[in-house]
Queue: 3 jobs
Job 1
Amino acid sequence: MNLLLLILFTIGIASGDIVAQINDIKISNKEFNKVFHLFWKRVSHLSSAKPTRQDKRIFLIDYVSNLIVLEEAKKMGLSVSNKELRSFMDKYIGRRMREKSIIKLIKAEILTRKIVKNLIEKENLDFSESKLRAYYEFYKRDFYYPTSVKLLGVYTEDYKTAKKVSKLLKNGESVELEGVKVGTPLWYSVSALPIMIKRKLPSLSVGAVSRPIRVNGGYVIFKVIDKEKGGVIPFEKAKELIKKKIIKQKEKEVFRKWFSEVLKRYEVKFYWENL
């Protein structure tokens, strides 16, 4: 949960190998860059965009917040079992991560959810018909879903193979070539697709195949597997979603309140010039 606008941290001066400090715990540039590289590689899989200084700042704040959550969870006697860890990775990541630094962040997310669950149980939430209807009308824009496409991405390192992949996909054939990685089909909002993909995939109709797109030292080819038109979800169908949104809002509220109290016990410094 991003607390960038919630908390004002101390800014200090330190040697070039330290980017942040939590009490006596120092976060080195090496440690931070290793974690950030793994994070950015995952979030930028659709483009070759380079991270900005602001991207690094936001991630560092989240990283520090997660380390504090880990410390507090330990004091509260909360932990994450291997089963919980595997289940979370299967559900939200789609594969088993092995990097210790990433596993640490995953554990922090699981523990944050446990803490929030304990906090939210003490709250009295109103799910009456009138409350749900009022929320729906006030936040109606939130119940608009954009036109979306389900894309299958296939990655290869050389252009010649990429052309073969494109041909196979257009013919509806399976891609079984050496050195080719076939991804899991994922849904994307058409309006949020990177310009490069729209240029290489001008037709977003089902079955359309993109021209090879250069990314991350290789090429990726996309095929439109499915498509859904946008619209507004009717109130009756939106009720369960409204409840989830109300719970989500309350979760953010109670967590921010809890975290702001926790921070009083920590001295946190950021050394932005060392990023």
Job 2
Amino acid sequence: MEILHPLILHVAVTFLLGLAVGISRYKAASSGQVKVSEIALRQPNWPLTVTKIGNAFHNQLETPILFYLLIVLLLVTKQEDPTYLALAWAYVAVRLVHLAIHLTINHVLYRFLIFASSMFILMIMWGKFVLAIM
């Protein structure tokens, strides 16, 4: 069950980021930085900072679903081992670096390299799992 710890950390960070999105959007709308009619249909009219936080949040909901699914499958099939645990922590650490880049310098090349690293870790985990159940 230790494999759930990195998953729980990532979920907690995602919830906090979702809260930050809500707060930043509320502040932008209530202060008049953006008119509700200009964003009601998801138009890209939010201030840059709000857009950056929103994009970072959405990114934490994309490929991590494959990570969450794999962790559940590892538990159900009793495949959890120290290698998966190390890879899970590595995956979450890299996702947190990706988030930090997204929210700060937002350098696209750095962000892509970190994203690619997280995908590589996830592919290794999935490959190990597929080989183990075949």
Job 3
Amino acid sequence: MRKTILFSLLFTFLIASLASQTPQLATGLEEFRSGKYDKALLDFREIILDKNLETIHGDAYFWIAQSYLALGQLDDAEKNVDFFMMNYPNHRSYPEAVYQKGRILFLQKEYDQSIQVLYRFLEDFPDNPFRANSYFWIADSLYSLGHFEDARVIFSIVVDNYPSSYRVEAARYRIALLDQKNRELELQKLLKLSNEEYLFALEEFQRRERTYEQAILSYQRKLASFSALSSNEQMQSLAEEIAAKDQQIMELQSQVSLLRNQVNQLISQLSDSGTETLLLDSETGELLDMKTRALKLEQFYLDWLEENMEED
């Protein structure tokens, strides 16, 4: 609303100042202000065709470009603004034409070129009222290119340095979107890291299970050759091996507990942020089953030792 009122006042003043000297231009501007862009184009073109109005040809080309931009005909708008900038570099509307060039490029999704033109505008015209708008379109271009951190910095310039600009609310909204996106990216990184650690631990557990299976075969072979060794030597050897396996089981239990805590923390974080969680219960159950089998193996050999010691 504030922009519309200001725009209307400026146009009224401009039309009034031109009405007595250049009534043709004033008529075109009145049509433009009323939203009759097609009619405004005809008025501005008539000015260009009239050699007696050569002194205002620059104004006509500028407003032809503006009319095409308002109609959404971006290619025609770009051609006319380029022609104006090339032929009327000293015109009072030249700074705005540079700004409009950057804006047209943004609308054409030529984001890199838009950024270059708008930065040139900011450097060449430090006191121009379109500076806040230029920063906004630069930030929006960076956002569209995926440079989210840089975009947030530029949006913050609009909010902090130009609080009266009508672009402030849009800039704040973009900042809120970027902050939300950053939180989602951090959670995704955490999920990926935790999942990789979980899979690594699962593979390690499976590897150790195969080691235990090989140990079973080794114990069976030793039982078969029990008569070849004295019972004391056999018992001591088995006790040492069981102690080693018991230490491995304790370490494995610690890893499982740590892994379970990490998974629970991750699920809690994802639940708080509203992100869909991954269900890992089946894999956790598999790990616990492996641990149980290892503990049963340990108990088997402890029982066997006890029976053999009683016989001795």
